[in-house]
Amino acid sequence: MARFLKSRSPIQGKAPGALTFVGRQKVAHTSIKMFQYNEFSIEEQEFSSLHQAKDACSDDSVTWLDVVGLHETDIIASAEPLFNLHPLTLEDIVNTGQRPKVEDFDSYICVMLKMMRWEPSDKRIHSEQLTIVWGPHVLLTFQERPGDVFNTIRDRLKSGKGRLRRSGPDYLAYTLLDAIMDNYLVLIERLGEQIEELEPVVSEDPSPEILGKINDHRRELHFLRASIRPARDALKEMGRLETDLITPATYVFLRDLNDLGTQAVETMDTYREMLKDQLDSHTASAGNRLNEIMKFLTVFSAIFIPLSLLAGIYGTNFTVMPELNYRYAYLIFWILLLVVAGFMILLFKKKRWL
Questions:
Q1: For the chain, where are the E strands, in sequence order?
Q2: End-to-end CA distance of the chain
């Protein structure tokens, strides 16, 4: 499956709002985990359906429902009547090729973006679609697979330290987005270290292996930029929303997300220029090495051209050649060859071709 664009053939010709999973199934069954908390207590449960989770929700607490696995569309569809979600939101949730965006539906806010991770097995960056939906008391997250960057947030919820347990779902949404943006910077830093390691060896060793590494880094950087730039723009848009679902205190923190997004984009642009310079340096070094080789071969050939001429003349089969009967003709012939070769070398050095 393509990394930059998911195949739309499963939804081609379908009516708007029709739930058709687009992507690759990454879990066997959809799981639902609930964190329900307030300033004084926290409760953690797991459910097999959103109906059970909805029954456990309380207006006296903030409820975070984490849905992992998007291929069971009947479970996703049940969120429409239970949490009053628009059919187009549900369609976007199961279509994992969505571009990062923010939508305000008055009764809830929906944020879609990519959650990235480094996979050591193939040394590539992988992504999954994450959807965050929150209303007055409930926040839902929809993920493609288990494993995310939210473990520190879960630990903060359980410990009860900080403002997280005293704040509403809008602040929880901010902390989730902040963790994702921090992870973006970690991945950029990791890729940047590999790019900087190539800097001193590009001009010294313009080998095909180095060129392959440069192209690998360019591919991964393009993959990051394709997700992070629209995510930055979406977060800027969220900071301009006029909604009661985001408190004035949380708007202050959203500006910090904008700063992180801008920092990530600027750092990627820096590394993109660095890779461009490395590619130019590699091309120039390879060209210089080729020029040196061609220069050597040209000089070598030029020296032997007059020698070949002399050898050709005295290699003919004419009967009347006075030099053939001379006792020292062979020695004189070699001396002549050496003198001509030495003269050619001195001439090339004088003209600074050697």
A1: 31-37, 42-47, 62-68, 101-104, 109-119, 124-134, 138-143
A2: 55
Residue 208 tokens read as 């095909």
Per-residue pLDDT of the chain (354 residues; tens, 9 = 90+): 555 555 555 565 565 667 888 878 888 899 999 999 998 899 999 998 999 999 999 888 999 999 999 989 999 999 999 999 999 999 999 988 889 999 999 899 999 999 999 888 888 898 999 999 999 999 999 999 988 899 999 999 998 888 899 999 999 999 999 999 999 999 999 999 999 988 888 877 778 888 889 999 999 999 999 999 999 999 999 988 889 999 999 998 988 898 999 999 999 999 999 999 888 888 877 777 777 778 777 877 877 788 887 777 777 766 667 776 777 777 887 888 888 888 888 877 787 766
Residue 107: phi and psi, rounded to 5, are -85, -15
- Sheet harboring 138-143: ordered strands across? 42-47, 31-37, 62-68, 138-143, 124-134, 109-119, 101-104
* Model-wide pTM > 0.85: no
* Architecture of the domain defined by 9-284: 2-Layer Sandwich (3.30)
Q: Which one-letter DSSP state was computed for residue 3?
A: S
User: In sequence order, what are the beta bridge partners of 284?
Assistant: none
Total residue count of the chain as it appears in this document:
354
